[in-house]
Write a structure and sequence with these properties.
- With 700 residues, this protein is α+β, with helices and mostly antiparallel strands.
- Among the domains are: 107 residues, Nucleotidyltransferase, domain 5; 136 residues, Dna Topoisomerase Vi A Subunit, Chain: A, domain 2; 108 residues, no CATH class.
- 31% of the residues lie in helices and 26% in strands.
- The protein is built from 16 helices and 35 strands.
- Strands 13, 14, 15, 20, 23, 24, 31, 34 and 35 form a nine-stranded mixed β-sheet that branches.
- Strand 32 and strand 33 form a beta hairpin.
- Helix 4 crosses helix 5, helix 10 crosses helix 12 and helix 11 packs across helix 12.
- It is globular and about 80 Å long.
């Protein structure tokens, strides 16, 4: 891939806890991939991996047309409390609502129950003279003079940002807009977010929490994205820079700076999108996406060719799997479960003499013991190396040498000697414990969404995903495992298949048999108009934009809603039976039974506006054949207990495996950024798109 093709390169860069991944595509299916250790300033790692990729391929920075970026900056800033000093202005009498929450004990019998600290301490939460009623009428006019004086005092006290969340502002945003004007008039340097723009949705506690989080991270995100742009310009980049949203769409820098809370799960969302694209190309509309990197494993369900999306998310959970133990955030997020199980997850023996793995991680610095960067605690990567699954001379394509002896010594000292096990037995224990943890989490996640884990193919990717994918799929009872081309950087590929997209929401309550359809039509028209304007500003053509409608509907008097598709066009009373049918279909899919003969009520109406979806990334390798034996690069001893322990196992070069190649496990397939382990009984076939498709247990 050498020469000049003009401004035609498209690049995706995903920052993980351990590695920063890149995928670059050009003409005729040419693909370049890269991986470097994540740096303390993540933008430096982006610059480094991009500069390396351009240098290897012979291009300059001005050849890049689009660069799409995924980041966990927002999540980390909230968890680590590294955002701006923020104040909250709210309706008089409601300053403590974000601390009271829903008065729900997520663990009923825990006397030492923890809740996350609010992002705004009580002394920076202020009552404002104002009251808006549920129908949007003003019961008490806003005291703008009070807000102006207060903003001046806050600015003088070093407050950098203000969140404004008034009661029922989703029904009438006027008071919030006037309050923002008063703050800006008195303290123009102050950053301000108002809830009627960030999340105009019913639910005061969640709305306030989301608005606070948005403005809390705004300065950090703006500084980071503009700093990243400057770094990229230093190496000649002049193209468009986009950022992945948590919902699976991409947006411009201006949009992300305005609504940074939409970046909450920016990085992980890309992987789920890539898995969906791979599944669609294979004709698998439903599957389990399994992304295992250096720090965490992310699992998500893809149904109908699209990852499932939730609008109820929590960040900074005190207990990882306990709903209600984190800060609620009302933004669209690709639904996934994330556990502390990655290549860098630390293995140890606990006080009860049990082998545990994670959630603490060695990260990129110092990293696993075998990296020889100062790490002393054995990790999953150390165990995989000792088991023969990784080649110490071919990690990152040989760019990083791994220290087998140091890994063996760490596993022996911390685990083997304490449990009376040999080093290979202890390493296998680490490998299997982390597989069981991921499989158990996946099983619960899938079943809770009304799916059968045995019926879902597993698409495994990430630096460690192909090493553990076969074991996880086997434990789940899945009959098929798919490993995409460039599996080690598949999340970066997901950035390249994401369309320009943005979600809009409005709350308007009504029973379906009494609904004012004129009001509903007006809401949808307003949201679709906003979506068209935003995407056109971002570069999409008006004729390329599509809008998808849904509504949050429940049985009358119920406390929880389900999301139901809504027909396009002008809605009338004639559409009511159609919406009832859609509700019944979704309800039965979730719960496996019909609901009671009760009326329905709608709370919230939603629109997703999307631009055209980019063409999927496909490798085009004419220099490879369908002969697996020609791709065999040697063999080494690898540990497979079902075959009696260490077994001489063939090793294949991933880049020489062409469509039609077949082989049987056990086998090891290596590429620069990841290694695939195929267990005994697995049958491998390479498809026309260079995906490795594995039938487990000798299945067809």
């Amino acid at each position: 891939m050498v020469g000049s093709i003009g401004n035609e390169l498209r690049i995706g860069v995903d920052i993980g806890g351990t590695f920063t991944d890149l995928m670059m595509t050009g003409h005729a299916g040419q693909v370049e991939i890269g991986k470097v250790l994540t740096t303390p300033d993540p933008s430096r790692g982006v610059e480094e991996v991009l500069a390396q990729a351009l240098d290897r391929s012979g291009y300059s920075g001005d050849s890049v047309r689009h660069l799409v970026h995924g980041t966990t900056l927002v999540t980390n800033a909230i968890i680590e409390r590294k955002g701006a000093r923020t104040a909250l202005l709210t309706t008089s009498g409601f300053r403590d609502s974000i601390e009271i929450g829903r008065e729900h004990r997520y663990e009923l019998y825990d006397l030492n129950l923890e809740h996350p600290r609010p992002l705004v301490p009580r002394h920076l939460r202020f009552d404002v003279p104002e009251r808006t009623l549920t129908d949007g009428t003003q019961a008490t006019e806003l005291g703008e003079d009070y807000v102006e004086r207060l903003a001046g005092e806050l600015s003088g006290a070093g407050v950098e940002a203000v969140a404004i969340c008034f009661l029922h502002s989703f029904a009438n945003p006027e008071s919030e807009e006037r309050a923002r004007g008063a703050v800006k008039g008195s303290a123009p340097e102050m950053r301000v977010s108002i809830s009627s723009e960030v999340v105009p949705e019913i639910g005061e506690f969640e709305r306030a929490s989301t608005t606070i989080a948005n403005v809390y991270v705004q300065p950090l995100v703006e500084d980071y994205l503009h700093g990243l742009r400057r770094r990229l310009e230093r190496i000649g980049f002049e193209g468009q820079l986009f950022v992945m949203l948590s919902s699976g769409g991409v947006a411009t820098l201006d949009t992300c700076v305005r609504f940074p809370i939409r970046l909450l799960e920016s990085g992980p969302a890309a992987g789920a999108l890539a898995a969906a694209a791979v599944g669609t190309a294979l004709g698998r509309e439903s599957l389990l996406s399994f992304d295992m990197g250096g720090t965490t494993a992310k699992l998500s369900v893809v149904d109908g060719g699209e990852p499932l999306v939730t609008h109820d998310f929590e960040v900074d959970r005190r207990y990882r799997f306990k709903k209600g133990s984190g800060l609620p955030v009302k933004v669209p997020v690709i639904e996934m479960i994330e556990i502390g199980a990655g290549g860098g997850s630390i293995a140890r023996v606990d006080s009860l003499g049990l082998l545990k793995v994670g959630p603490d991680s060695a990260g990129a610095d110092p990293g696993p013991v075998c990296y020889a960067r100062g790490g002393s605690s054995p990790t999953v990567t150390d165990a995989d190396l000792v088991l023969g699954y990784l080649d110490p001379d071919y990690f990152l394509g040989g760019a990083m040498k791994l220290d087998v002896a140091a890994a063996e010594a760490a596993i022996a000292g911390s685990i083997g000697d304490r449990l009376g096990m040999s080093v290979p037995e202890a390493a296998w224990g680490v490998h299997q414990v982390v597989n069981e943890a991921m499989a158990n989490a996946a099983r619960v996640h899938v079943v809770e969404r009304g799916k059968n884990p045995r019926a879902l193919p597993v698409v495994a990717y990430g630096g460690a995903g192909p090493v553990h994918g076969y074991g996880v799929a086997e434990l789940l009872g899945s009959t098929e495992l798919v490993l995409p081309y460039g599996a080690g950087v598949t999340s970066a590929m997901g950035l390249l298949v994401a369309p320009l997209a943005f979600d809009f929401v409005r709350s308007y309550y009504g029973r379906l048999d009494e609904l004012d359809w004129g009001e509903v039509n007006g809401i949808f028209e307003e949201m679709e108009r906003e979506g068209t304007d935003l995407l056109v500003e971002s570069g999409a053509g008006p004729d390329e934009i599509t809008h998808t409608r849904t509504a949050d509907i429940r049985y009358v008097g119920q406390g929880h809603e389900i999301r139901v598709p809504i027909p396009d066009g002008t809605l009338t009373v004639r559409h009511r039976p159609v919406i009832y049918e859609e509700f019944d279909r979704v309800y039965q899919g979730l719960y496996g039974r019909e609901g009671p003969p009760v009326g329905l009520e709608a709370l919230t109406w939603r629109v997703v506006s999307r631009g055209p979806r980019p063409m999927p990334v496909e490798a085009d390798r004419e220099d490879v054949t369908g002969d697996a034996e020609a791709a065999r690069k040697g063999e080494r001893s690898a540990f497979f207990p079902s075959d009696g322990g260490f077994v001489t196992t063939p090793v294949y070069d991933r880049y020489r495996l062409g469509p039609g190649s077949t082989m049987a496990g056990p086998a090891i397939i290596e590429e620069r950024e990841s290694t695939a382990i195929i267990g005994p009984g697995g049958l491998v076939h390479v498809d026309d798109r260079f995906n490795i498709v594995v039938s487990l247990g000798g299945g067809a």
